[in-house]
## 1
Amino acid sequence: MADREIMYREALREAIDEEMGANPEVFIIGEGIAERGGSYKVTEGLLAKYGPKRVRDTPIAEAGMIGVGVGAAIAGTRPIVEILYVDFAMLGMDMIVNQAAKFRLMTGGEGRVPFVMRTQGGAGGGVAAQHSQSLEALFYHIPGLRVVMPSTPADAKGLLKHALRQSDPVMFLEHKHLYMTKGPVPEGEHVVAFGKGAIRRQGKDVTVIAWSNMVQRALDAAEDLAAEGIDVEVIDPRTLVPLDEDMILASVAKTRRAVIVQEAPRRGGVASDIASIIQDKAFFELDAPVTIVAGLNVPIPFNLTLEAASVPQKDDVVGGIRRALHIGPLAAAAE
Amino acid sequence: MTRHATDAAVAEPPRSNSDLFGLYRDMRRVRTFEERVGELFVRGQSAGSMLHLSIGEESAAVGLGSLMRKGDTFTTHHRGHGIFLARGADPNRMMAEIAGKETGYCSGKGGSMHIADMGLGHLGANAIVGGGIPAVVGAGLASKRAGEGDVSIAFFGDGAMQQGILYESMNMAALWDLPVLFVCINNQYGMGTRIEQATKGRALHLRAQALGLNGETVDGLDVRDVRATAQALLDDARLGHPGFLAVECYRFFGHARMDKSPYRAEQDETEGRAKDPVRFARDALIGDGTAPEDTLDSLDKEIEAEMDGAIDFAIAAKQPPLSSMFRDVYAVGEAEPEPVRTRIDRILAKD
């Protein structure tokens, strides 16, 4: 039986709803998530079903609410803290980096922080520099955090359900342009474990690694190149921490070429780290340098033309794949 | 707490304000423990010099520590040895942690500034000024849901009074009627900055009142005053009326062990140290005939022997193996962990 198709935001809501129904320790707090139903409508209807004690509006105080979530997790509950934009999570970085991420180690393994911070990032639509960032590299850098970036409605549901059943602090990074995308999502129990990537398209000529909103862009680029007889494999790691290195290395060993696509600025990004892992562990499998297609090293500009030019578009991905295949000018810089 | 099998003869905390002898004993234990921490450093046996002693602040630790009950939780600042000890911690395992040893409360990975113990409700000491404060609001939410009347207490210094996170936290505690108490141990110094140089408004409890919490300031000289004021606030907090308490005291020594306090005059120190809650209690016990001086002398000697034993225990303990490096960074192979609440209940059932 084919799964029904629902939107990414509906899939997230379904995961929260099912886990709240199954586990009384799960609750959610955030700005405007209860009566308003959330700016992206992920939490719509949950207040009516679970009441104000489990679906709670907070003051606009991001550091405080993240800290409250961390404390509630340490004390034995399973909070979800919704931060409206990942940009606003910067107010709570002490709570994330110095408190949540280190608690298990600092307590010699006695402490647990089963805390999920749901937030969203990404550019597009002219929401400007403080509402558009892709900040996964900041969290990726911090040992102790899990970093999850679902690209499909099914993964949004399955990964969030897993996040609410494990015991590490999770940065659950959604993308604002995925909320309205639709896809097949299994009803009821559907859990996607962390650390297992997905092959979104099988191919033999080149491996493209992409996550979040860049997965669809990579698939669109692959479609264009298929018309020229170029067979692209697209891999979506789904979680950056833990990273499915095995899947990436196996694919690179097969295609002998790798292109990594990230929306975030190139400098200090996750793509650079994945490239270093590939060169370290699969150097002799490669027929070409690892190519990175990334955002420019600029704050996201407001102007729509500038904004679009600052993050990878389909043609940028196509260009990156051509470079990896030595098609076109070899010397062309990534940005 | 199954990993460690040390048994300490932990004294029962005083059950009433009239038990000044018990309160004195607990304060003396804190004082002597801290002196031994200093000794551990001088002997080159502490893992690092980030040791922040709470000498002079014992009435806050014992006044509050003697009121906490099973199920209550708390977080502390970086100067929290005394609070944890007053709550019933094993001095051996504390000293071992301060020495970075495997048998310490956190397997040597937390240290003085991050000591914690889920079993005693210690949700963590913190090296970020104000960093542990919002966690008690979260724990208060959890407690309110559980409905057992357990309270969660944040301990911090006057330095944290100027951090924004305190106000976000107090606001939410009041807004949501949580069983939470905020305790500012005002030792007059935020690192090397005297409170007068840090803020104009020094009636600290008024800030809490402005946000809708109960707010009090108490002189820390007499531990009975601290305990009585804290008792009233705690009772109310258990009913969902959060409170704030500032305990006025004096930090006898520098910020950390390497700090020789160049920012304060010798005369200030002499005057400050005259406000000694341990000596005050001792004089009171002798003065009203509760305990003769030789009884107190022998009690002090017993405590010294206990804390000397803690040093010996710490020095003899093993270093954590290098193979423990990656343990406890993430849950490994823990797809369906035991629910945390069940886990805490199981641990609590053991003490």
## 2
Amino acid sequence: MPKIAIASNSKGGLEDVVASRFGRAPTFTIIELDDKGNIINVKVIENPGVNAPGGAGVKAVQALINEGVDIAVGPSFGPNAKAILDEMNIKAITIPAGTKISEAIEYVKREIGLA
Amino acid sequence: MVLELVIASGKGGVGKSTLSSTLALYLAKQGYNVIAVDADADAPNLHLIYGIDRWEIEEDYREAWIAEIDYDKCTMCGICAEICSYKAIKLIDNRYVINTIICEGCLTCSLACPKKAIRRRQITSGKIRIAKTPYGFPLVSAKLNVGRPNSGKLVTEVKNRAKELAREDTIIVVDSAAGIGCQVISSLAGAHAAILVAEPTPASFSDLKRVHMVTKHFLLPTGLVINKYDLNPHYTRKILEYAKQEHMDVLGIIPYDDNVPKAMAKMKPLVELYPQSPASIALLRIVSKVEERVVKGWSEWFREYKPRKPVPYKPIILKPPNIGKG
Amino acid sequence: MKIKISVTGGKGGTGKSTIAVNLAVSLLRYRDVVLADLDVEAPNDHILLGIRLTNEQPVKIMLPFIEYPKCIRCGVCAKVCDTGAIIITREKLPFIIPRLCSGCRACYFACPVSAIVEGQRIIGYTYHSKANTIHGSLDLITGVLREGEEHTPPVVLAARERAINIAKDVLLVDTSAGTANHVAIALEDSKLALAVTEPTPLGLHDLEMILELTERLGIETWVIVNRWGIEDTTRLEEVVRKYNSSIIVQIPYSREIIDSYIKGKPLVEVHPDHEISKIFYRLAKTISEVI
């Protein structure tokens, strides 16, 4: 039952869009899917890295680790964030900024074979 | 989307600020929404090129600590001086004294002190300033107080302030510092593209290769501008060959021009003061290419010039003996 | 009795390295000289001397390793890490991100159960090369930061220490531009600083910063004006007076310096009778008498 975190541009949620930055996205929309790909939970968390003076990507990933996320979605990943996601076995998927989150989920489902 | 372009060089004094100030100005005149960022917190000078003498916003940046010894508790064991990685603690006149200029605020000494005699103090490490240029677009600038470390954090903060001001379609032009250390790495982090500036000398070529290695770590599509190319056509050719091998987009070359320092002395951009000067003409050709190729043609340019072979950064690690598995 | 002299200057590209190299060669006439290139992000002195970097020694900083069997998962190490180099996994175990670690050892001292063991990470190198000049052999110590590394000060420190160890008489230090703390580390304990500037508003602005730094470090500073002749120097003279300094030398702009720069040999070797070479020799003589 995959947990997907999508870097969101403003207040988060299915109606929001993918942020222009991963590490400094204002919020992460965390979507839980069941084995058939249905959405069973949507949660929005603030990104602790948004105003961090340094290592924003790292702080963002720490927050996702704390939430038990399996898949991270952003427009791109800085080298720090990418390296840690790889180490923590969290799959990183890039989806262009501005994509509606509800659409992004469909893309992710196709990527992981759930659609 | 917000497009972030960073101008870097490795070597100082080769023309980064001339190029970034011209690029921001040109794009603004073409009607784009532009924010100029001076990320050279050690020695900012974009405000001097634009002729800004007053800041609309000026804020202290206080995200820094230094260590302070409580002499009432200190028993002169000297452990702090021994473990300080920067040799910032010295025995002077029978007291252990922390050199506040060099102290980086890692606070290891306070953790190591057996008497808990070292505490931390927050300090102002620099300033963030914002002003509107005479051309209508904002300049976000940073100034690190002398002797302070970690300008990388200040640079990140400056870029954040710029992003706060940005709209959906803003172009952020970042003038980075010279070198390849934390302030340059912070300038490049999160950028979409890098434009590297070099002059045709062995020193500048060597530094160009070093900063280019860093842009490759960041997987950034990279353009190249050669300044004062006519001072040494032989070296200009060498650098152009390198650019070709490395698949960098050669955006143009600029001749040496006496009017460049003259315009800087008058605190006005070269292309405003001496638009017919040879360097101006070359610069305008270059920035218009940036507009065509990098701004308007972003997706194709990105696909074409992003590094073919990723060159990830790999730390060189020496494991301690007998470390357990975990 | 070793004496340290630093060549510095807030603005990049003012000709610091060119002056440091030419001054080092000129000083060889009078004294034993070791030149230390502490501009570790963009070192150029070896290029200006036309020599290769040899005798490589790595610069290492501490890298923590967790002894997981001992770890009690308190998370204190991640809390005290100033650079965010320790992340806490789902199992509450600390995980180190080497590239972000600055080697400060805060985690090592903070761990309540001594579960952190010291490993190391190489972030750069120092080199010891010799240049055969017309006045004898010049020892050059160079510090080089590895590309992709963020943390400059340990490399500056290592190169500085290596240079101090081999210097017998005069140690001439070439710092990087700017006024950040790694410049302060390069300047520390200098008997004399030579601040190189150019007579432009940018040069002046950065000169004030470097003079403020050397004043705070308590180092006597002389000002060298390079590319003199391109601008009016009244404001420059005011700033110099304000910091109780003096303009010791003015080097006019010249094509020959640029040529020698490109040829990879110092001007004083390529054109020893040039008026600028004579300026360097006079400066070297003055310095050697004063110290």
